[in-house]
Design a protein that fits this description.
Helices cover 37% and strands 26% of the residues. With 235 residues, it is of the alpha/beta class. Strand 7, helix 6 and strand 8 form a beta-alpha-beta unit. Helix 3 packs parallel to helix 5.
C-alpha cells in the first residue's frame, strides 16, 4: 500500500471540509475521487500535499507517518500535486516551468531524460520551449502543468481537476495521456468533476459528498451504480 489515509478531518475556520475520510492508494493504480463542486476534493488534495493541516487523522506514505511533514518534505518523498487551475508560471518560458518542477532532483541525466519524456508525451509544447507559458492555450497549459509535475519524479502523482475549462476533445486527450503516464508505472490519484472520464480510467474510485466518502468500488462498478448515474452521469 503506497498511501493510507485514516479518519482525516480538515477545517476552514469553523467549517468542516473533510469529515473522517479514510481510504488507501495501492502502488501502480489509478484511484479517482468524484464529486460536485464543494464536495471537498481540492481540500483533500491540499491536505495530502501539506498545504492544509488536518485537525484530526493521519496520513501514511510507504508506511511512514507524514501527517506533520511540510509540503517540501512530501515532495522529496515523491508526493507531487498538479493543482487545480494549472498554476503555471505565466511569465516563465515552457522550459523554465519544466525545470522548476525538477528543483528537488539532483541527477542531471535524470532531469534531461525526463525532459525528453515530457515532450514525447506532449509534442504540442515541444516547439514552444522558449515561449512564455502564459501565451499557451488552456489545453497546452494543462499539458505543461502535468509535465512540470512529472519532472519531480513522482511516486504518487496527484491531479486536481485536470479537465477543468477544457473542450471535450481536449478532455479526451488529457485523460488518454493520464492513462499513458499510469501505464509507464506512475501511481495516480485523480480528483475530477467529470465523473465519466474519471471512472473510465480508474482501477478504483470513491464518491465524495460534503466531505465524506459515500460510495466506493471499482471504476466499472461506479459507472454502473444507479446512485452515481443519477447524481453524476445523467439518468
Amino acid at each position: 500500500m503506497l498511501l493510507q489515509v485514516n479518519n482525516l478531518h480538515t477545517y476552514y475556520g469553523n467549517i468542516k471540509a473533510l469529515r473522517g475520510v479514510t481510504f488507501n492508494v495501492n502502488e501502480g493504480e489509478i484511484l479517482s475521487f468524484i464529486g460536485a463542486n464543494g464536495a471537498g476534493k481540492s481540500t483533500l488534495m491540499n491536505t495530502l500535499s501539506g498545504t492544509l493541516k488536518p485537525k484530526m487523522g493521519e496520513i501514511l506514505f510507504n508506511g511512514e507517518n507524514i501527517t506533520k511533514m511540510t509540503p517540501q518534505q512530501r515532495v522529496s518523498k515523491g508526493i507531487i500535486l498538479c493543482p487545480e487551475g494549472r498554476q503555471i508560471f505565466p511569465k516563465f518560458t515552457v522550459e523554465e516551468n519544466l525545470k522548476m518542477g525538477a528543483y528537488t532532483v539532483k541527477d542531471k541525466k535524470l532531469i534531461n531524460s525526463t525532459y525528453d519524456y515530457v515532450f514525447e508525451l506532449f509534442p504540442e509544447i515541444k516547439d514552444r520551449q522558449k515561449q512564455l507559458a502564459g501565451t499557451l492555450s488552456g489545453g497546452e497549459q494543462q499539458m505543461l502543468a502535468i509535465g512540470r509535475a512529472l519532472m519531480s519524479q513522482p511516486k504518487l502523482l496527484m491531479l486536481d481537476e485536470p479537465s477543468l475549462g477544457l473542450s471535450p476533445i481536449l478532455v479526451q486527450k488529457i485523460f488518454k495521456l493520464i492513462n499513458t503516464i499510469h501505464q509507464s508505472g506512475t501511481t495516480v490519484l485523480l480528483v475530477e468533476q467529470n465523473a465519466m472520464a474519471a471512472l473510465e480510467i480508474a482501477d478504483r474510485a470513491y464518491a465524495l459528498e460534503t466531505g465524506e466518502i459515500t460510495i466506493s468500488g471499482t471504476g466499472k462498478e461506479l459507472l454502473s451504480n444507479d446512485e452515481i448515474i443519477k447524481s453524476y452521469l445523467g439518468a
